[in-house]
């Protein structure tokens, strides 16, 4: 599976129409799935990226409305591209103030959306450290083990599939969700719906423990941090790439949280030789994500198209590791070979298909 993350932080208004204008190109290039930002109305209205979710069933947002969203999804489906919804299941913002007897103060926990009303009883009121304050002074309220909330969140996700047309889900910020609810949610959909969760942690053991419990796929943050070192450090021990578990993982090199215009972000971004990282993840068996900015804004489109085309031609072939040391990675799929080495560009390869700094992909008869 090849996924296009089809947005970036503070992308343009009327974004559904922007994507709709290039659907044919997305399909032709070989993307299987387009990942869209959270479609529901946020606290900040037309200035919201959707992660400050306020009204679940209200799809009027900076990106467009219900009509333009369904039109986009239908167009993607007509071009045999599936659509992934970004779901915020762990918190809400922008509620009205009400007296909260659990905290003995007023909190922003009253949400009067007719399709999914909520109040202080539906949010966590047992431990103070799961409520935090943002810069606006609002209370971010994390869902508890409330049966009403769990049932209605699942119903909302079902509505996004049946009424709006989404095919798959990305689950935001799983670190702030109960592990048991993550599993309950996944159990409702796993037979017919691809899902991948964001559990932002570089410790592969923690991700494995969560995967074993929830049976969810997760974004491969441990591999991301290893690839970042490889791209930015010529002395990186390449063999450590294969030390990261790949089971139930989705590989990626960037996203809307890693790279933003705000000064305090970007500290985790790969700023050198990202092309090398894409050569590696697009050669693997795992589902892979290409970030919008990398494809459309940062000048990597031509080389990424070559790597995508090679992936399409070789993905059905078994992956073999031919050589793996601290200095070299050599993998093969049928006749296609990928070599990563910081001196590889000094050598001549017949049948060269794609090459860049510190890597080559060539065909060997």
Your description of this structure?
By secondary structure, the protein is α/β, with parallel strands linked by helices. It has a single domain, classed as Glycosidases (TIM Barrel, Alpha-Beta Barrel), CATH 3.20.20.80. Helices cover 29% and strands 22% of the residues. The protein contains 10 helices and 20 strands. It has an 8-stranded parallel β-sheet.
Q: What is the CATH superfamily label? A: Glycosidases
Number of domains: 1
What amount of the residues lies in strands? 15-25%
Secondary-structure element order, as H and E?
EHHEEEHEEEEEEHEHEHEHEHEHHEEEEE
Spatial strand order of the main sheet: 14-13-12-11-5-2-1-15
